[in-house]
Amino acid sequence: MDRMASSPARGRPGRPTKAQTVARHAELLTVALDHFLDKGYDGATIEAIAAEVQMTKRTIYARYPDKASLFLAAVFRAIEYSATPLNLIEAAVTDDLEETLYGLGLLRASQAMTPSGVRLQRIINTESYRFPEIFYWSYEYGALPVIRFLTELLAEKVEAGQLMLDDPELAASMFITLVVSAPARTAQAGSALDREEVERRVRAGVRLFLNGARPR
């Protein structure tokens, strides 16, 4: 996965500063995540992670008592980094509903289909049976902010008579499934989609959604 923090310069021996401690911890989680993504949970080892990050196992175990706790910390940090910022969600809004939905769909699809996003989602899918919390974290930080925003937007359009939807929240969730989840699963299965194809699929999904939601 793309390094989320550059390796800190290792200074002279002695008590590390607070900034150095924070940087070393960030480096540990980044290296650990790479190992889990490359080798899977079962294949990754504390020994290999410690060797690459140049820490003793004792130092790692002092903070994370077992591999499971290190895995959860590394994955949670990656999910936080992949969260959809509210300012980007709001920036997708235009006076044209189709273009707004297209912008929101493309935003989420583009995030989910980066190489790092695909690898992260694969391990979430693979390990959520063992660690169900990672599935809920992924939903809470990934899809949910867009769904909440979209729910309010769709409710406003229903109130204005531009859409006919009994349940805007359910419709928002189904929109994300249609426009984002389907192409993302294609990428996770190993079939790479170029930007033009992603845009084509998002546009088609938006139009299909609106064709079912507009008044007749």
Question: What are the SSEs and their pairings?
Answer:
Blueprint (H helix, E strand, L loop, with lengths): L17 H26 L2 H8 L3 H7 L3 H15 L4 H6 L5 H16 L2 H13 L4 H28 L8 H21 L6 H19 L3
Q: How would you describe this structure to a colleague?
A:
The chain folds into two domains: 18-70, Orthogonal Bundle (Arc Repressor Mutant, subunit A); 82-213, Tetracycline Repressor, domain 2 (Orthogonal Bundle). Helix content is 74%, strand content 0%. By secondary structure, it is mostly helical. The protein starts with 17 loop residues before the first helix and ends with a helix. It has ten helices and no strands. The chain has helices at 18-43, 46-53, 57-63, 67-81, 86-91, 97-112, 115-127, 132-159, 168-188, 195-213. Residues 5-9 have low confidence and may be disordered.
* Structural class estimated from helices and strands: mainly alpha
Order of helices and strands: HHHHHHHHHH
**Overall form:** elongated
- Compute the number of helices: 10
Main sheet, how many strands, which sense, barrel? Answer: none
Gap from first CA to last CA: 47 Å
CATH class of the largest domain: Mainly Alpha
Number of strands: 0
Mean of the pLDDT scores?
88
CATH topology assignment of the largest domain: Tetracycline Repressor, domain 2
Strand-residue proportion = under 5%
CATH architecture of the largest domain: Orthogonal Bundle
Number of spatially distinct domains: 2
Assembly type of the chains comes to single chain
Low-confidence stretches: 5-9
What Rg is obtained from the alpha carbons, in whole angstroms?
A: 21 Å
Instruction: Provide the CATH superfamily of the largest domain.
Output: Tetracycline Repressor, domain 2
Instruction: Give the % helix.
Output: over 70%
